[in-house]
Amino acid sequence: MQNLKILSVSEVVGRIQGLLSSDRLLSNLWMRGEISNFRVPRSGHWYFTLKDTASSIRCVMFRSRANRTTFLPQDGMRVLIRGYVSLYERDGTLQIYVEELQADGIGALWVAFQQLKEKLEAKGWFAPERKRTLPFFPRVVGIVTSPTGAAFQDLRSVIHRRCPGTRIVLAPASVQGQEAPGEVAAAIHYLNQRSDIEVIIIGRGGGSLEELWAFNTEIVAQAIFTSRLPVVSAVGHETDYSIADWVADCRAPTPSAAAELVVPVLAELEARVVLLRERLKQGMEVYLQRRREQVERLATRSVLQSPRGFLVIRKQELQRLQYNLGLFIQKILQHKSLQLKSLTAQLSALSPLSVLARGYAVCRKPSSGEVVRDQAQVIKGEAIEVLLDVGGLICRVEEGRDKVETLVGVANGDQKGQGGEKKINGWG
After folding, report:
1. Residue 382 three-state SS
2. Does the pTM exceed 0.70?
3. Do residues 36 and 51 lie in contact, with contact meaning Cβ atoms separated by under 8 Å?
4. pLDDT, tens digit, for every residue of 315-373?
5. How far is CA 175 from CA 144, 171, 292, in A?
6. Is-contact 199 141, C-beta < 8 A?
7. Cα–Cα distance for residue pair 55/51, rounded to 1 Å
8. What is the DSSP letter of 361?
9. Above pLDDT 90, what percent of the chain?
10. At what angle do helices 180-193 and 218-225 cross, to 10 degrees?
């Protein structure tokens, strides 16, 4: 044991680190594999595992390197990485420090294109209902493109040929390269700040995916989405599609086609105005001729030729209607008078006053006004009021009788009380 060299953990890790650093292949290698356990903490570094069917190894890509990657890796994605193998001394963990990452099989730009397209589509930036209609006859057109490119020359030539009076405002911007996305977005913002611009055309000529990449970036897509002015995208050739094409209010297959979409042909408009003016003239002539014929037909009517005779006829008709109305009212009044007499007679027959006029009387108690219908309602000596046809009497009860026959006999004078006085119903 005395002859053995005992190493510390740090010495062992450092020796392994030295061996790895001295290996030229492991210091700058390319690897192919499948990503798993991909995560991005707050630091912005990328951590993931690269694996194949037999093995796996941990990888880290620092934020400065990750920001240069045009797409965001996902679990299950096959990639190519370039980096170096090193040992994380604190944990003694072997891992690869990735300096470059590419999609395996399909290009990294294509992956980034598809990812951004799916992201913006999910946010609703491609929705048809948010697309705006282009102005029919814009007087000022804003163009975002390179001033030296063929696209600008085509746009200017087509616009001036179709509508010579249209003004063009060029907001120059690089259309490819690292600075292009920011310049294109800034040019769109500049045109939106002007009050005279009515529509914006952005675009460039054809090229590869790398050359058209400025129009596949989120900064340009956002500038188009937030534009207050309608935007026409004309990027590349007819078969080329960009993110800008989907976000824009209208997509044109080429810059020349964009110019044709934005401005009408002035000569065609002038010819249409002439045609419409002629049609309006003909329509007015037809209208006036019809009204002239209508006036002539009206002039032949008797009422216009002899208005006095017309008034005489109408006056006679009015007099006849007045006479008929008087007869009708008189008949109604006679009929209603007869009805009134009949109802009055019926009412008079039912009136209690008529009963009194025939010699009958109504008896009631003076204090309460209660009508006396039964001799049991009063007692001897009680005062009662007798209502007659003319006037009335205040009487006092001396005797009550039960039988009507007795009362009738007394009323007829068949029975006499003492002194020969008549008593009716016990009252006197």
Report:
1. coil
2. no
3. yes
4. 899 999 999 999 999 999 999 999 999 988 888 777 777 777 777 888 998 888 888 88
5. 9, 12, 67
6. yes
7. 6
8. -
9. 46
10. 10
